[in-house]
Amino acid sequence: xxxxxxxxxxxxxxxxxxPAGSYVPVVVTHNNLAFVAGQIPxxxxxxxxxxxxxRDISIEAGQQAARLCTINALAQLKSALGSxxxxxxxxxxxxxxxxxxxxxxxxxxxxxxxxxxxxxxxENGRHARAAVGVSxxxxxxxxxxxxxxxx
Length: 151
Description:
Layout: H1 2-8, E1 26-28, E2 33-39, E3 42-43, E4 46-47, H2 59-81, E5 89-98, H3 106-121, E6 128-134, E7 143-150
Parallel strand pairs: 5-6
Antiparallel strand pairs: 1-2, 2-7, 3-4, 5-7
Helix pairs in contact: 2-3
């Protein structure tokens, strides 16, 4: 069912990106929570959106980066769970936006992730959230997104 929804949105999940460090991409607890490690906007093994949002790339490109991070996170979840149909609801999203200190539109950027989760999971995609500005992210990524889902 979720696979059909993704297809209707024109989304094909990629192979899950390999971790860029000493961690696992998803941890599922006995309390039915899955924690997805931070995902950056990679496509074909390359970072697609680099630099600082609001300086090097637009807010709209930052939203696309957050959406791509979420697609990568969904690929990680599918790999860990076997099926995205096991996801009951999105619980929490944390988005990090590489930006200059005076940039204040982090919530607009991370809407790229939040809006996609609602498109995919409907009301069960609504979640608590934090949108944080940071001075840099791994591999000069513009955005990084992590989230928690109930399974």
